[in-house]
Write a sequence for this structure.
């Protein structure tokens, strides 16, 4: 059976075929003799070479078997000996093909080709380096030789697979194993927590009516892959204090690859006598091409368990129970995710899952508000007036642009008025207030969930020990100055304040330049809207599409301008994103952050600031600027002055809220759809293309490290972009949710897909990332808090200034002529009058632009504003009602903000950040660490004194002979 790139059911693969070959009895090499007949060759699926006689093949086969070394660990590469014999029998052109034909039939190593162990089947492969010889081979060969020698000096064990062992015949693979001594030493250095006692606190977390959650649960062995223990930082000198059953399995693979990567990132590739300290770390070797890749191995193929009994096959379980789209309603096996990928990736999926759960409640309330707007269509008095022939059909409106726009009747906006009511109603205010409280509940409950994960995943007190005190290798190599660290009392590198300030200033200037570029692009889009509106108005005036039964009334110049401008803005956003990502990484590297935590925080701030301006600026324009600085028919305002002839844009006659909704839907939905396609399709296509050369080779030749090598690298910033995508979405559903109550529902649907897409691509399309620890979501937490506060302000302003809610309420309570609590007469009240004869020539419609019904008997037109009519002593100045409405809007903003903030702070104070049971468990664990360490030291001292007494000492070994146990513990504490 040949290796393929696809499997039944539509799963796209670039690894081995899910169907084993007939002779692939152990998922790799044969366990029987190597000689075989021609029929056996056909059955194995090996490619049959042309122009080679059977006698030649049998002779070569006998030669290959005779050359097979008995001791594989010390013998030279089998391929080297074999190819010398092949060279005598065939031409150089057939050498490689003939070797591949017979290689799978040679019993060189009695183990699975899909194994994650060395050739001896005992030592686990913790990391793999790959490289290809090229024209600059001598320098790179010297670097590799020194680097690998230095790795062996620190205790790592290496095993190299010759290039003839690879499916492309070019790639060397260096397999790395960390023995117990190395793991124990660096676990002590990194303060990795390991179990010392089984957890004896009873679990009383059963929820009432827990049986209702049964359909959403996963099997117990998947949800809880290992027992619960009390843990303490590993101490090599006290290794017998911890629960070590088997040294080979004591540290899980994720911890092992994390330790090995720590060593690789700090190991030098220059000789000890070389003074160039800058040349160290696997990252620099990857950048200069010395190695082509470095990665830990997956433990099996994702669709099938490994046949090696020593392999855990956790990848298979993740694919089956987590990454499948059929599991979208199931809980996530977070403990297994954390065990396989590390805490940093586990925290991301825990946050994403919790965010999706909380979105469900916001989506339900938002949908109810939308349904309320739909059901109250009949109560929409102002829309009825707009649509009626008696009122809307008699009101002549002033032109919306100069020259190319004619007069129009108000009832032409009937459809947009009804559409606006779906989102601009009383429920909008309620939903804006609800979302202000929801975002607080989300953040507070996440803190509790995060605190529980910190304890369960041994991340308490992790930040200071693991991140703040560990320097980045790049910082260590680029900072030549040294100073005393007051905490560690050791000399460490530091960046002079002058250099730091200069780099920070340059970085800040670059960020400001790019933000200015975004704002310039947004201004360009606004200018586009102003310029093309007149063109659309002229073109669409007599367009046949306006006569269509259903969509005809919907196709308006306002809609065409808004949709095309939003699409152009979306394209600009995507292009600027691609450009700025590289710039942000470059300027962050230039600042030389001290620790990995500082590096991620700096990059996070830069990228979010850019994305914030990039994605939200157009929405801010529509919400708070469009239609607010228009002027009136006799004195219009222009964008760059009257010379530009770009008259400031007016709102859609149905209100600016419906335009904000349109903008939000296009940008938010477009980003989510494009993001999911890009995340899923791009890695799959790249993997498919990268594995094209291996499709004709026998499956049994495709080793575990080759399979992973053909996958895409997840990258150091892979998780960063996932967070950024979700935080930008969070901004859409909080900052502008008052304009579109269905935004949480769209986000919920996207996130249900996002969880499985991220799981699928991480499990099937990417190499296994290096495990990393993280006790929280980092700087994103503060960004979410800031957006939560800002969302209260933006939604209050949207309700007050973008929607027509406040003007309607002011009219109903203060200006209704009959004194009734209804909206009759609101439309006529909200429109001001202007004398057509007073319109300047520059603003008047050109000949032929006015509709057929317009004639000289029409002497006045209406416009949206509150100004005195012509003939009044204060004609065209604002009326008192205008100032009353402004006062009501400001009062609403103040009241809404204070109400929501009071509730937010009360809820935040009411909900503790750390659950009480977690506090108790943390205290008990610390207490037990002290107790057990005390008992351990006492027993150790007793044994030592007992041994000394046997050597002649007559002293009785007694520690605190008269003190009760609790006094001993208290004194110890």
């Amino acid at each position: 059976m040949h290796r393929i790139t696809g499997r039944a059911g539509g799963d796209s693969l670039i690894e081995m075929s899910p169907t084993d070959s007939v002779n692939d009895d152990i998922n790799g090499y044969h366990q029987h003799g190597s000689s075989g007949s021609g029929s056996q060759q056909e059955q194995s699926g090996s490619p049959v070479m042309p122009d080679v006689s059977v006698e030649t093949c049998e002779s070569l086969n006998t030669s290959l078997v005779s050359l097979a070394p008995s001791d594989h660990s010390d013998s030279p590469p089998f391929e080297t000996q074999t190819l010398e014999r092949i060279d005598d029998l065939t031409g150089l052109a057939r050498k490689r093909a003939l070797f591949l034909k017979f290689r799978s039939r040679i019993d060189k190593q009695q183990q699975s080709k899909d194994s994650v162990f060395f050739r001896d089947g005992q030592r686990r492969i913790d990391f793999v380096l790959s490289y290809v010889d090229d024209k600059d081979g001598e320098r790179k060969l010297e670097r590799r030789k020194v680097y690998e020698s230095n790795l062996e000096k620190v205790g790592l064990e290496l095993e190299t697979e010759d290039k003839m062992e690879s499916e492309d015949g070019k790639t060397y693979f260096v397999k790395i194993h960390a023995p117990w001594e190395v793991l124990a030493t660096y676990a002590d250095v990194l303060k990795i927590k390991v179990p010392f006692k089984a957890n004896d606190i009873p679990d009383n977390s059963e929820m009432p009516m827990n049986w209702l959650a049964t359909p959403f649960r996963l099997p117990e062995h998947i949800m809880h892959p290992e027992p619960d223990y009390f843990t303490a930082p590993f101490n090599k000198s006290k290794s017998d204090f911890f629960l070590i059953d088997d040294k080979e399995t004591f540290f899980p693979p994720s911890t092992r690859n994390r330790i090995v990567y720590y060593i690789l990132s700090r190991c030098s590739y220059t000789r000890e006598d070389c003074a160039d300290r800058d040349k160290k770390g696997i990252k620099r070797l990857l950048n200069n091409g010395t190695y082509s890749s470095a990665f830990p191995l997956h433990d099996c193929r994702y669709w099938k368990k490994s046949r090696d009994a020593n392999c855990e096959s956790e990848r298979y379980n993740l694919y089956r129970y987590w990454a499948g789209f059929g599991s979208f309603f199931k809980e996530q096996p977070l403990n297994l995710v954390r065990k396989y990928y590390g805490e940093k990736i586990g925290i991301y999926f825990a946050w994403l899952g919790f965010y999706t759960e909380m979105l469900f409640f916001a989506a339900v309330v938002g949908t109810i508000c939308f349904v309320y707007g739909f059901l109250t269509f009949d109560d929409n008095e102002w829309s009825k007036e707009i649509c009626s022939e008696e009122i809307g059909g008699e009101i002549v409106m002033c032109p919306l642009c100069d020259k190319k726009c004619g007069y129009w009747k108000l009832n032409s906006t009937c459809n947009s008025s009804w559409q606006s009511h779906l989102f601009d109603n009383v429920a909008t205010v309620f939903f804006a207030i609800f979302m202000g409280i929801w975002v607080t509940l989300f953040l507070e409950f996440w803190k509790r969930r995060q605190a529980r994960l910190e304890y369960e995943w041994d991340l308490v007190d992790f930040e200071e020990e693991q991140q703040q005190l560990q320097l980045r290798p790049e910082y260590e190599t680029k900072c030549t100055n040294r100073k005393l660290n007051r905490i560690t009392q050791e000399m460490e590198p530091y960046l002079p304040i002058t250099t730091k300030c200069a780099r920070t200033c340059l970085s800040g200037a670059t960020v400001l330049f790019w933000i200015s570029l975004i704002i310039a692009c947004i201004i360009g889009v606004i200018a586009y809207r102003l310029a093309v509106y007149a063109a659309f108005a002229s073109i669409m005036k007599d367009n046949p599409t306006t006569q269509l039964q259903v969509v005809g009334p919907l196709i308006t110049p306002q809609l065409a301008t808004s949709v095309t401008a939003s699409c152009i803005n979306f394209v600009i956003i995507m292009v600027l994103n691609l450009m700025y990502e590289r710039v942000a990484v470059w300027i962050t590297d230039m600042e030389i952050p001290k620790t990995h935590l500082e590096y991620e925080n700096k990059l996070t701030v830069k990228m979010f600031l850019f994305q914030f301006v990039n994605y939200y600026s157009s929405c801010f324009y529509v919400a708070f600027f469009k239609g607010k600085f228009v002027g009136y028919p006799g004195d219009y305002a222009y964008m760059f002055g009257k010379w530009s002839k770009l008259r400031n844009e007016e709102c859609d006659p149905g209100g600016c809220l419906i335009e904000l909704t349109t903008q939000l839907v296009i940008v938010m939905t477009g980003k989510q759809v494009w993001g999911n396609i890009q995340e899923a399709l791009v890695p799959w296509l790249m993997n498919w293309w990268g594995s094209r050369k291996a499709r004709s080779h026998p499956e049994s030749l495709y080793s575990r490290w080759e399979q992973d090598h053909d996958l895409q690298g997840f990258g150091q910033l892979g998780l960063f972009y996932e967070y950024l995508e979700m935080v930008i979405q969070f901004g859409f559903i909080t900052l502008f949710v008052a304009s579109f109550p269905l935004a949480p529902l769209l986000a919920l649907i996207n996130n249900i897909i996002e969880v499985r897409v991220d799981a699928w691509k991480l499990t099937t399309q990417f190499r296994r990332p290096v495990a990393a620890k993280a006790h929280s979501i980092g700087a994103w937490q503060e960004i979410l808090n800031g957006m939560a506060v800002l969302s209260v302000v933006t939604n209050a302003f949207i309700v007050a200034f973008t929607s027509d809610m406040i003007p309607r309420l002011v009219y109903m309570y203060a200006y209704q002529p009959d004194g009734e609590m209804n909206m009759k007469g609101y439309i006529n009240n909200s429109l001001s009058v202007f004398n057509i004869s007073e319109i300047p020539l520059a603003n008047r419609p050109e000949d032929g632009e006015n509709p057929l019904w317009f004639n000289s008997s029409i002497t006045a037109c209406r416009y949206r504003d509150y100004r005195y009519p012509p003939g009044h002593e204060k004609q065209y100045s604002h009326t008192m009602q205008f100032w009353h409405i402004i006062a009501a809007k400001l009062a609403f903003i103040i009241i809404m903000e204070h109400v929501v903030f009071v509730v937010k702070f009360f809820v935040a104070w009411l909900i503790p950040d750390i659950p009480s049971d977690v506090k108790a468990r943390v205290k008990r664990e610390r207490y037990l660490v002290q107790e057990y360490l005390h008992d351990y030291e006492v027993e150790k001292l007793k044994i030592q004194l007992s041994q000394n007494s046997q050597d002649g000492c007559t002293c009785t070994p007694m520690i605190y002979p008269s003190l009760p146990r609790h006094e001993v513990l208290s004194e110890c504490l």
User: Anything to note?
Assistant: The chain has a mean pLDDT of 78. The first strand starts at residue 127 and ends at 132. DSSP finds 31 helices and 14 strands in the chain. The longest helix spans residues 497-539.
